[in-house]
């Protein structure tokens, strides 16, 4: 009699193991197949054994699938008695307190789930020294794998149990569990999108979004193959597991057994359930309208309202378990919830917070960044991820130059005060505006980040003061990349290319290129002149292990532009005889077709940026002319600009001998007398 009142009731545990033992068996077999067995599959005795620093790199996809599904499935089945009336009445009629039932079920689940993990760890340790094993690893790697897998398993199982206390239907419990596990990353992205549309200066990707995204176990598990969990992350998941266990005990004591089969087991949680579903549905629908309607605020707000309507209807159907949800009370309730959620979304995006006007004082700033590459800066990668190395890997973007800090502050002050409109046309046209991220490193250790689309007209003095500084150019044009160990430099235009591999030529070239970039004026940087060519700078080869555990050599490259303003570089290349091998010459072109481009008003909005439509219309009106004169083609090549439908005085279609075509433009001031006489007006 006393044994039945123990917290760890042996009868209940044995019953659970008999009824749900298949989960533990499948979990054990699956882990044994994807880890120990994988060590001996595909063995080639002629290949060296692969050294591992994490066992998650062996059959990772299978491991991830098992680590996610089995704990959740176990949690669903072990709380099944709470979700149906007959089992609920039966179990709660036993002479046991609720905490005894919950403890027995928790113990059963942990036995089903943790024993397979430690069995797999033991088998892997025993087979690690066998001659047929393809991998080399240490005992610490096995211990780390077992610890991480155990904590993840414990967390997912306890979280599923916790959700089961709130939810009264097994299927809904599974759905809600999976949604909540990915909710941090999804909701952070949706809220970030909302703020970037309605809050001036809010960056498209914020540090808050990155932090919240890291709270999603699913996202962390996806990255587990490349980078193991830190002690802080493991401690957080372990602490959350015990928190969910404690909350489960508290809530289970007050859970009404009569609510079995209901969507939400606590009636007072129904409003929060409705509001949560409405908020998520509204943000999703708003994000869809944002993508389809080019972020137009009116359509986005309309999407929020439509999504809230569908979300409310879905929540009501789930709670009532009926399609019949239409009533006057429901309409008024929907209006109330929509108004409250609208207020919740409006306040952070309004001017009430002072976010849009806030500019730190010079005394608060220890470093500053201005440019378009801020999101590319990443921490130093591990060797396995080194194949994605960029000039921004492991670098810090901030400059402590006081003059640069003041120049960025002045630009920020005027942009925040004027708040130029982020028009869609300007966003896709770099000749009219430039996208800048302004980031401050403050003395208190925090960061302040703003992102703006700054028109090039009206802000020239402030932009010039920032963009002509050495600090700006070094970060924006990745000059530190040129200081690394360079293996080769490749210059190319279309199918023409030349490679510099001599260390002496590489040293000369990178010195000249650095000086050319540092000497660029503001006008050179915003010019829409077609570049002379592209420059690919490749570093010396490094070694890394791929996801297939193959040791390979790789090279990292970064691309620069050979701008028409680089006169010293052009002279050096001409002296070396490389310029003629790279530049596009009139001999490479079959013909040039020219027209005066004044057809935007005659075309629909969808075709205004369609250069083929412009040319077709000109041909139909016999206002296009074709020339094969090499002198005129040379004049075009010397003055050509990238196509800009907002400022395209003359459109030119260049047809190359290699078989491809390219559109460029000429401004009114670019025309020589010969070209002006040739083009029909």
TrEMBL record:
Record field: transmembrane: 21-40, 60-82, 102-130, 142-167, 179-202, 234-252, 272-291, 297-319, 331-349
Superkingdom in the source lineage: Bacteria
The UniProt record lists the keyword Iron: no
A Pfam family that the UniProt record links to this protein: DUF6449
InterPro entries, sorted: DUF6449
DUF6449 domain segment(s): 440-566
Swiss-Prot/TrEMBL keywords: Membrane, Transmembrane, Transmembrane helix
UniProt name for this protein: DUF6449 domain-containing protein
